[in-house]
Amino acid sequence: MIRLIKLLALGILSLCGLQLTLLSAGPKALELGAPFVDQAILQRNMSVPVWGWSTPGTKISLEFAGQKKLATTGDDGKWMLVLDPLTASDQAATMTVTASDGAKAAVKDILVGEVWMASGQSNMQWIAGKSNVKAIVEQLKQAAGDAGGTSAPIREFKVTNYFAHLHPIDHADGEWSQDYHQFSAIALAFAHKLYQELGVPIGILNCSFSQTSIEAWTPRAGYRNSTRDYNKMIEAKLLETDPATPEHKKAWSAFYASIMDAVQQNQKIADAGRMTLFHCRRARCRAT
Question: For the chain, which domains are there?
């Protein structure tokens, strides 16, 4: 399964629960949400939300691309502000974040262009260096050599830890990279095509994991109160897997009862001097 999704100014990241500690400095910790780390690429021509965490009540000042934005950390320790639409740029810029308690953070080498999320299974995870896409890698390396060492502004942020949406995470592990050999092959081919057509920096957020379905990447709110039968079925399964719900207790009781029934049946078979169902299956025979 393969999915390439356009990010709306990175706001979709809050749905995915992808958030990363950037830097702690000064007397109090200051954190930024992913992917606001060195070598990041931000979305052009749209308002860009930037968020993070600090001590409740802390005043936050952010400066980037000639803009200065202010925010205040809420009671939950989270702050968010919104940058005005940015113009595409392949010139490295720095984002500076300062907290009123003295903490500071600087995100360096930021470009502005197109940002897409790559999500899927093992075929999306398959790296460029082990596929036919390595031909594109060689093209990019050759172009960099001809340009005196400047590579194409295509970067990938690869998330390296995963959890079910039943248990969302606050902090993801990952970093922006330009090691094309380790890029998702499909994502790199897509990004390269975009770069050829648009001529702006291309950022890929690779959030893929083998044998996962699209449902695993959809927030639970996406199924709640839906009128579609399929979505109702997914919501019912979610409730059954959530230990805090009555549906889970009922499902577990039914599962446990089925196990006890099997145990009792095997006990009767064993008492009668015949093979149990377990041994019978291993021996590829049939109890009578």
Answer: 2-217 (2.60.40.10), 227-288 (no CATH)
